[in-house]
Design brief:
Elements (H helix, E strand, L loop, with lengths): L1 H20 L6 H11 L3 H13 L3 H13 L7 H11 L3 H6 L1 H7 L3 H18 L1 H7 L16 E3 L7 H5 L4 E9 L5 E9 L2 H11 L3 E2 L2 E3 L2 E3 L1 E10 L5 H22 L4 H18 L12 H10 L3 H13 L7 H13 L3 H13 L7 H12 L3 H13 L8 H9 L8 H14 L3 H18 L4 H11 L9
Antiparallel strand pairs: 1-4, 2-3, 2-7, 5-6
Helix pairs in contact: 1-4, 2-3, 3-4, 4-5, 5-7, 5-8, 8-9, 12-13, 13-14, 14-15, 15-16, 16-17, 17-18, 18-19, 19-20, 19-21, 20-21, 21-22, 22-23
């Protein structure tokens, strides 16, 4: 009895500390488990911790061990408790706590033998090394053969006069969302060699329309779609050759730096191999620089490079230079999201709402959307839209939606998303005059961009009738 009290007291203290200290860094499953545990709903807490533990979350592995230690939802099992807590000790911080050693010291010899064997089983399946091996993408081709989404309407930007006067050349990489109707939103220039190129490209990309993506016949949102605008002054062969050789020399330098094993250099080489072929010309890139970017994203991600994990997860989801695999994609996006990468959090949210590629889970989707909204304006607007339009009365909150919208820059480049969200919020709060005004801005802007008008005008008519919009994400 004394032994039981010692262990449960230590475990209870540890669990309480986790509830206080680890919730801010938790994954969606872990956060859900902590909420259920705090409310003494042990069955859903156990299943939430189990999901996160099997995805490699060390805090969840520790919590699962505590539940086995205390017999919460499961029979009390010190062997299973030790195995999960020892698995969590892959985290240096948790290893220093020494909880696994404490549990092990109170097992008899036969139990210790079983505990070591069980820990080995868990490590072989859910340990860091095992998960990394299982989640390695199946490579296909190299960086210049990646899959793209087919634009139906695309426009070339005007060459900025200021850049032309300076003889400036380069490119801009945009990341954006393709909505279910093929229009684009959430436009972000994540690499640009000159600000004037960004401004020129933004003017036209808002009007791009893509062939809608369908999965099992149903339209699906695509986040993380990319498009590169290349700005060159001279498209002649001699100039192309010089540009290609310059790019190849730069790639060689970065490749040599990446070969030293430093994660940031590995990430840089991976990114540049994706970019080089469209700017420098495929046939001017030497054989040693024609490498699959996912191989290098993987190397960087294995060392904890969070952005590399996002790009790897994104590429695996869409089958860019590898086989598409939603399970592996989810793993890498989750690691990146847990490290605070807003794009990974946002992509997880959209996919979990959709259910097209990942299993649909509204609770987790909202969790990740809220996390992303703390950093990313696109996520803030998407969350505000959900709060203003969701069919579930329990989820709608017009006041919170308004407060989120108020924090978005007035010159936010995605005017469609900015205006339509303002209109939906006004309607939710009963101000239909304001809703009509904002939705009229949506229609006017869409007409200038030559975007599809049916849905936009339908929303305007709804507000003119004094009705709020109700739409599931």
């Amino acid at each position: 009895m004394k032994l039981f009290n010692l262990l449960t007291t230590r475990a209870g203290l540890l669990s309480g500390l986790m509830l206080l200290l680890l919730s801010s860094m938790a994954s969606a499953s872990l956060q859900s488990g902590l909420s259920h545990y705090d409310a003494e709903r042990y069955e859903p807490a156990y299943h939430a911790f189990r999901r996160a533990a099997e995805q490699g979350n060390h805090q969840a592995q520790l919590n699962l061990g505590v539940m086995y230690l205390k017999g919460q939802h499961v029979e009390r099992d010190l062997v299973e408790s030790y195995a999960w807590i020892a698995l969590s000790a892959q985290s240096e911080t948790l290893a220093q706590e020494g909880t696994h050693d404490l549990v092990f010291s109170h097992l008899n010899e036969a139990q210790q033998e079983k505990a070591v064997a069980r820990h080995k089983e868990l490590e072989d399946e859910f340990g860091n090394a095992a998960l990394l091996k299982k989640m390695q993408p199946t490579f296909s081709g190299t960086g210049f053969s990646v899959k793209g989404f087919r634009p139906v309407y695309a426009y070339a930007p005007e060459y900025p006069r200021s850049a032309a006067r300076r003889g400036r050349e380069g490119w801009v990489d945009f990341m954006f969302t393709i909505e279910k109707d093929g229009t684009t939103s959430d436009h972000v220039a994540y690499y640009s060699s000159d600000e004037s190129f960004t401004d020129a490209a933004m003017e036209v990309i808002r009007g791009f329309q893509f062939e809608p993506t369908t999965i099992d016949g149903e339209p699906a949102i695509v986040h993380g779609a990319t498009y590169r605008f290349v700005f060159v002054l001279d498209e002649g062969k001699d100039h192309e050759r010089r540009r290609g050789r310059l790019v190849d020399r730069h790639l060689s330098k970065v490749r040599e730096q990446a070969a030293t094993g430093e994660a940031q250099n590995q990430f840089a080489f991976a990114y540049l191999t994706q970019a080089a072929f469209s700017y420098g010309g495929e046939h001017y890139i030497s054989e040693e620089n024609r490498q699959n970017p996912n191989d290098w994203f993987m190397k960087a991600a294995r060392q904890g490079h969070s952005s590399a994990g996002f790009f790897l997860g994104r590429n695996i989801l869409y089958g860019d230079a590898c086989e598409a695999d939603p399970r592996k994609s989810h793993f890498w996006l989750l690691q990146s999201a847990n490290d605070g990468v807003a794009d990974a959090q946002y992509m997880l949210a959209l996919e979990l709402f959709s259910g097209a590629r990942f299993e649909q889970n509204t609770e987790q989707a909202i969790f990740w959307l809220k996390e992303a909204a703390s950093q990313k304006q696109a996520a803030r607007l998407r969350y505000a839209w959900l709060l203003a339009t969701h069919p579930d009365d329990q989820l709608r909150d017009g006041a919170l939606a308004q407060s989120l919208w108020d924090t978005v820059d007035e010159d936010y480049p995605d005017r469609q998303r900015y205006y339509m969200t303002a209109a939906a919020i006004a309607a939710e709060q009963g101000d239909f005059k304001q809703a009509v005004r904002w939705q009229s801005e949506v229609v006017e802007d869409a007409e200038a961009l030559k975007l599809p008008m049916t849905q936009r005008k339908a929303h305007l008519a709804l507000y003119q009738e004094g009705k709020a919009l109700r739409k599931a994400p």
